[in-house]
Amino acid sequence: MNLNLSDEQEFLREAARGALSRFKTVEAAREGLEDDGARLDLWPTAIEAGWPGLLIAEDNGGAGLGVYDALLVAQEAGRVLAGAPLLGPLPASLLLDRGGYARIGEVASGELKASWLPARPPSELEESWTVDALSGMTRPPAPAATVEGDSVTLNGTVAWAPDAAEAGVLVAIGRTADGEPVAVAVEAGAEGVSVEAGWRYDATRSLATVTLANATGTKLTVSASDIAEAWYLTQALIAAESVGSVETALEVSVQYAKERYTFGRAIGSYQAIKHSLVEMLRRVENAKSLLIYAGFAFSDHPDEVAYAASAARSVAGGALDFAARQQIAVHGGIGATWEHDAPLTFRRAQLSRRLVGGTHDATDRVTEELLAGRGPASEAA
Questions:
Q1: Architecture of 7-109 per CATH?
Q2: Which of 10-14, 317-321, 335-339, 343-347 has the lowest mean pLDDT?
Q3: Residue 381 has pLDDT above 50, yes or no
Q4: Which of 117, 243, 304, 367 has the fewest CB atoms in 10 Å of its CB?
Q5: Long-range contacts of 121-126 (CB under 8 A, 24+ apart)
């Protein structure tokens, strides 16, 4: 199997890097912690680059690309801690495209910003569709759904939904009386829809808590497996962002280890520093391998998507947490102060490991898939 990027993928990655390089994203991440108005709005850039239509079919006005291509863009966003609108719009576009949404052309062009409200597929630990909790560890059920033809009425709350605050249409996942999921396109300004915008800890993450009180939307003709795929797409996107952030943390740390001298020697010559840098490299290389696997699973092995995306999220999340801490340690005293950018990476790591189910949830899913014999390692055994 040829794992090299195609010419088109190389161009996509370089185009994303070039688009993001026009902004001081790290400086904006710092300023956004103190001033809401300082946070960058990258949606116009996303439209210019064609990111809203990445996963939408060409017949519907999109680029018709695959998940692996979207992961390349997310990885570049993670490298510069950019608050790129990917986690909400891309899974939403996937479901809207497959579900026959009437305004899909507007979604593809970016004229209509879509965002999905993440719902976790059932597992052996939780047998129903659930959403992130506003507080605490107990996950509440997905909004209750009453289906009448193509119209669906929803009641429930979804907390910490990425990019939902700025969306014109929300893709909500409801739970019918028999426990089956239903995907619903709900206008953000519709009656019964309340969107409370906010951010927590990492100013580059646009989050919102959405309350649906007898809110009515249009049913999307997608299956439960399609809805689950949107969840795993988000897991893979967070993993890709994490990989990008680790790559930058490693590059910055290696450079500093070469330049900083103590007792007449570069600190990179000390064994403790060398070991921490090598461990950062080992972890990010493992995560990159799993990210490639996840990308191919979406296109070629749909039965392995849950395992592959969850494994990538689990390993990449652990890599970013470790790298963020080691970046601070390598830089010594200055690394723990606001004089350096390392604390911003640390904040990204800590929120990423909790967002949309969290790293621990992805790890549990990997275990479940393996024990059930659905992972490739189980098949080989």
A1: Orthogonal Bundle (1.10)
A2: 335-339
A3: no
A4: 367
A5: 121/224, 121/227, 121/228, 121/231, 121/306, 123/364, 123/365, 123/368, 124/368, 125/364, 125/368
